[in-house]
Each structure stands twice: as structure tokens, then as C-alpha cells.
């Protein structure tokens, strides 16, 4: 409200907690709201992709990877390995 943008890094621990507890969809909903306000970073994407893979939602994980690439963020090797493992 006061012109300050939220930092994605401040939300990453919450994303990690939610994903580790089977609530990746909830974490992604928060993430998408933050994206609208300009807050996103590669670790956020990686955490959500990991969560979706662990929960067997590989299509959702792939869609996040595509979005990540469109935003010109570079996934790390672990992210690709998770997705390949889901094939």
C-alpha cells in the first residue's frame, strides 16, 4: 500500500513450510499474488516446482518451469532432475 514491493525471499520460508506439509497449491496461490506485485525469484519457483513434484503434480510443476523461463529465470540442475524424474 505504501509503495514498497514485497520481497520474494521473505516469503520463501513460508513456501518451503507449506510445500513440505503437502500444501503446495496454497503456496502457489500466495506466490501468484506476489507475482502480480512484482515479487518473484528463482528459489520461489524451485520450491514450488519441488512441492508439485513431491505431490505428483508434474504438469503443474512443468507449467511453473515454463513460467520461470518466460520470466528469464534460470532453473538449477536439481529442478530439471526433479521434472525428469517425474516422466
From TrEMBL:
Ranges for the PPR repeats: 41-75
Family that this chain belongs to: Belongs to the PPR family. P subfamily.
Pfam families recorded: PPR, PPR_2
GO MF term set: mRNA binding
Transmembrane segments: none
Repeat keyword on record: yes
Keywords: Repeat
Protein's UniProt keywords contain Lipoprotein: no
Record's protein name: Pentatricopeptide repeat-containing protein, chloroplastic
PROSITE patterns, per database record: PPR (PS51375)
Organism superkingdom: Eukaryota
Amino acid at each position: 500500500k505504501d509503495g514498497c514491493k514485497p520481497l520474494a525471499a521473505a516469503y520463501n520460508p513460508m513456501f518451503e513450510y507449506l510445500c513440505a506439509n503437502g500444501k503446495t497449491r496454497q503456496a502457489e496461490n500466495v506466490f501468484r499474488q506476489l507475482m502480480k506485485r512484482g515479487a518473484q525469484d528463482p528459489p520461489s519457483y524451485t520450491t514450488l516446482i519441488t512441492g508439485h513434484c513431491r505431490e505428483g503434480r508434474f504438469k503443474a510443476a512443468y507449467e511453473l518451469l515454463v513460467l520461470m523461463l518466460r520470466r528469464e529465470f534460470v532453473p538449477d540442475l536439481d529442478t530439471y532432475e526433479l521434472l525428469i524424474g517425474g516422466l
